[in-house]
Amino acid sequence: MRNPFALKTEVLSTEMHLLLALLAAENGEDLPVRRPELFRGMDWESFIELAMHHRVYPNLYPKLKNLGKDVVPSRVISCLYNYYSRNTFQMLHLSGEMEFIGGELERKNIRALFLKGPVIAKDLYGDISLRTSCDLDLLIPLTELDAAESLLAGLGYVKDDYIHTVLNDWKWRHHHTTFTHPNKGIKVELHWRLNPAPSGEPDFEELWSRRRISDLTRQPISYLGQEDLFLFLVSHGARHGWSRLRWLLDIKQLLLQQPDAGQLTALLRKYHYYHVGGQALALAGGLLDAEIAGGLRSMECAPKSRAMAQQAMFYLERMINLHSIPVPEDVASYHKRHQFALLAPIQKFKFILSFLFPYPEDAETLPLPKNLHFLYFPLRPFLWAWRKTVGVQK
């Protein structure tokens, strides 16, 4: 396995080392011969658990199924096959719904860019069965959000009203709202931003001008251009600590398409994701043997990029699920520090400045008529101090 950047992987489990080796290999058939030590003393139950946690079992199953039961127990192959088959049906189900929703949006003249799901599986892997997805994510202009929400409601989707807001802070503190169809069992995330503040990112018109059209369905489906997709994937993966290897595998697959290094570097610099992109390259190259083009080497080799890549190993050394609430206190504390370290100086300034803007908790602590909400600006320090005194954190 080529290792351009020597990440410290000594504390990773035997099962994780095998998982990484399989993801790095083109087909894995010669792995038992080249690296037989990886298969010795294997806890296959832990291996399956890791494969499920990192959402990479669709990629692993085709590589393991032909190795023989003397290398991989038949029960392991059977288990992975069941998950692989189930995921294939899920992706077909999502593909049909994606085409349906895309058609309905087009009929209402609502522009939409599908961010993930089957369209990305087809683009990056050439086969929707090789990537998992549990929902559909699409980006629309903020001005068309109300119309898109009404359309989804008319199609039977139910909105999860989890966003509490004051003075319209939802527009930048949040970046999507969630809808679920009670009968179809499908979740749709309706984005008006790629990421929550203080991220910098291209506006919708810029993204739309570089869009691509997928040939996955009969109904034309628009999705992000190559360089924009890279920016979105690295910003999303970094925001979640690269705690699932599937996100790094996406980066590896995208690099195989050889995006324009000059355009990509300029885009990441413009929106303050240069070192976040470098972190992704260092991790994908160091762990998954991803091919880093010469034009991207300086980004991957930057000291900050590599330092942040090593810091992200914290998440891979443990089986961390940031969506499982409550997050352990030590993990939450580390994640908060790591996320702040990822920010560019201008983003750090905006992040600190955002604490001066009222929070919904301020309105809950001291309810005021809407026409007096501007008073939360001078009152915020006092309301924050009061909540700290009575033990409410914000």
TrEMBL record:
<dbReference type="InterPro" id="IPR039498">
    <property type="entry name" value="NTP_transf_5"/>
</dbReference>
<protein>
    <submittedName>
        <fullName>Renal dipeptidase</fullName>
    </submittedName>
</protein>
<dbReference type="Pfam" id="PF14907">
    <property type="entry name" value="NTP_transf_5"/>
</dbReference>
